[in-house]
Each structure stands twice: as C-alpha cells, then as structure tokens.
Amino acid sequence: MIQSLHKTMIKVLAVTCIASPIAYNGSLSVISAEQAVISTSNPYYNEVKAPILVPVWSSPLAILKEDRITGQNVTALAENGKVFALQRNEKLVALNATTGKKMWEFGSALAPLFTYSNGFIYGLTQNGSLYAVNEAGKKAWSASLSLPKATSIQRLGSTIYVTQESQFAAVDAVSGKIKWKAVEESNNFTGLSELMETDGVVIRSYLSQGALTTAALAAYDSLTGKKLWDHTRQWWPLAVKDGLLYSITNTFMMDDDAVNRNVKVSVFNVKTGELKGERLYKWTDTENKDGAFTFGGVNGTAFLDGNDFYIFQGKKLVKYDFWNYSAEGKPVQTWTSMAKEKDYPLNQVHQQRMLYSNYDTGTLSALKLGNGQAVVLNNGENPVVQTDLFGNVVYSGQSDGLFHAYDMLTLKPIFTVKTGSRNFAPSLKTEGMLIIRTDNKLLGIKLPSSIK
C-alpha cells in the first residue's frame, strides 16, 4: 500500500510540473512572458470592401537605371488595343492589351523614353538617336541627335521636338530629317519639357537660376530654330489667342504684401515678345500675424479652364470670366475653400468638381462647384502612391500593394487588385482594359462592363 501511494505521488508531481509555471531544479522559480511597456489598439475604419479582380495577364517591364530616373521617364504606352512597353532586355515590344500576347519586338539598347502619335512610336536609343517605328513594328527612320540624356519627346504638328536641358532639336516626323538644333548659352538655364507650337512659334518653359530660381519662357521660330525672345518670371501660358500670349507673372520677392494681394497676368505678342498689357486680379487677405505657412489652396495660384479663370485666395476659391476683364471687375462666383491642411489644388476641374491632392496621404478630394460640398474620392486603408482618373473612375495604388477603383460620383469602391507591389507608375487604359504599372511589371485587368 505504501508503494502504491508513493507511485501516485510521483504521478501527481509530474502532472503538476507540466501544468504549472513552476519548475524544480533544486530551487523554486517563476517563469513568465515578457510584458509590453505599452499596448494600444485603434479602430479600423477605412477597409475598402469590393470584389477582387485577378489580372488576366502580366508582363515584365524594364527596371529604370539610376542615371535615367527623371520625372519624364516612359516605359509603357497604350493605344488602339495595344500596349507598347520597354522590357528588361531593353527592346520595345507590342502586346495585345486584351491577352498580353507579344505581337512584335523592336530594337536594342533603347532608352525609357518614347511617345505615340498618328500610328507611330517615336523613341530614343541609349546613345541619343531618335527612331520611328509604326504600329506593325516596322522601322520608318532614325536620326542621330546625340542627346542621350533627353527628357522629352513630343510631336507637335509635323515636327518631333526633343529636349535635353539647354539643348533643343526639331525633326521632321515623316522623313526623320533634322530641321534644326538650338542650344541655350546661359549657364543659368535648366531645361523643362513643356512645349507648345502656335502661329509658327515654339514656346518652351525652363528654369532660370540665379539668386532666385524661377520659371521662364523662351520662343523659337518653328522653321529655323532661331530664338525670338525670352522672359523670366513667367509661368506656362494660360492661353494664346489672336496673336497674344497670356502668362501669370511670378512676383515672389517683388510684391510680397501679405494683406493686399493680386495675381498679375502679362500679355505678350507671341511673335516678338513685346509686352502688350497687364492685368491685376486683386483681393485682401487677413494678416497672418504668427508667420506660420498655411496650406489649403496654395494662396495666390490660378489657372484657366476655358473661359473660367480660377484663383485660390486663401480660404476662398473665386472664378472670373477671363475674356471679359475689367480693372475693377469682381468674381462671377465665390466658394469657401473646404480643403484640409496640406491639400493642394491640381488645377483641374472635372465633372464640375475642383480636384485636390493631399501632401501626406496622397488622397484625392474634390470641391463640388454646384453646392460647395467637399468629398474624398479615394479614402483607402493606406497612403496612396499613384492616382489616375479615367472618365468617372478613380484608380488608386496604395503603399500596401492594394489597387482600388472608385466611382467618382457615388464614391463607392468598384474593385480591388492585389498587386504585390509598393511602387506604381501612371496606369494605362485602352479598349476595356486597364494596365496597372508597377515598378517591374505590367498587369492587364479586364474592366467590368459598367466601366466605359
């Protein structure tokens, strides 16, 4: 009986050692998990609930080299049911946008910079030559420009214009013949890529560097490349009409009255650059005595949309009739700006909505011009990396790899794609297909029939 009792005690002790945090190793000690210094939880409100769409196809995309990372890089375009893309072997390929099937490939050692116009792709090789290839993949011509660091290629009329910092070239779009090349001699010139051609004059914007870096305009004869005129402190033209060019003048550090504000529009003869007149759109601001910079409109910026000239005046947004100017004229409409801290205007009106983006979150918001209501168009789970608006649909790639589509008018999510990438480039759309561009691949998405 004593032996039986002894065995029972051993079993009880064994079970106790297993079930209890107390272990016996000659002395008794307590074992416990490490405790967090602090532990908090936050409610999760912004989960986007929408059908998950799976890509119909995917294709590798060229990875940009560090010496080619600029704001003007192009690695893919979509036109006429085709996707033209630069792949990792530095060849240009054409893919069927619906199936992703390769239709043809062209060239070698091509640069991530090309454009499409009138059935042709115009692009740059890594050694700086310009090439033209048709939609069937057949080479039309090449031109040796020696512009290996070019930042833009644009077709305006019958001419292809290529820019590289202070250099500027014009090439005949049909024959590939170089018409002319121009070089700015000033060391203070930093090239930008905005171009327009009007009345036989090519207008180019650039940055003029000095004690103050500011935007400037230069004009060239479109036939010869001869420089006609330039003006510093002038932003990209609002409009050109009846031989006159309208441009907002940058008055920073020239007219910095914090209370009596104005937007100055200068009017130039487009061919000679002669100043033909000036306009002042005036308003009064409340003095900011604490000296803090406030967002919510980027006070004093303005843009033209048809006949409507919009000016962001602090907490107000106003609209003038641009083509019926008078010195003491009043706005034809005024709204209270509903922009939040760090919202900045995109200088775009779509569906009677003024569009804004947020510096921190990347979210897209809008002020409804009909009733003054502010709405957020793509409020998702994480910061937005890329936003694209096609028609009435907002497409947003987030930093967590989720890619959402929202109806701009109803604000409802339409679908979600799990991309597996944190980086996105502008999306493409052609014939019912959305092409999502990540940092190293293309994803073909068949759009629902409800999206036009």
From TrEMBL:
Pfam families per the UniProt record, alphabetical: PQQ_2
Superkingdom as given in the UniProt entry: Bacteria
Record-linked PANTHER family: CELL SURFACE PROTEIN, OUTER MEMBRANE PROTEIN ASSEMBLY FACTOR BAMB
SMART domains linked: PQQ (SM00564)
Record InterPro entries: PQQ_b-propeller_rpt (IPR018391), PQQ_rpt_dom (IPR002372), Quinoprotein_ADH-like_sf (IPR011047), WD40/YVTN_repeat-like_dom_sf (IPR015943)
Gene3D superfamilies, per database record: YVTN repeat-like/Quinoprotein amine dehydrogenase
Protein name per its UniProtKB record: Outer membrane protein assembly factor BamB
Organism: Paenibacillus pseudetheri
Occurrences of domain Pyrrolo-quinoline quinone repeat (ranges): 89-231
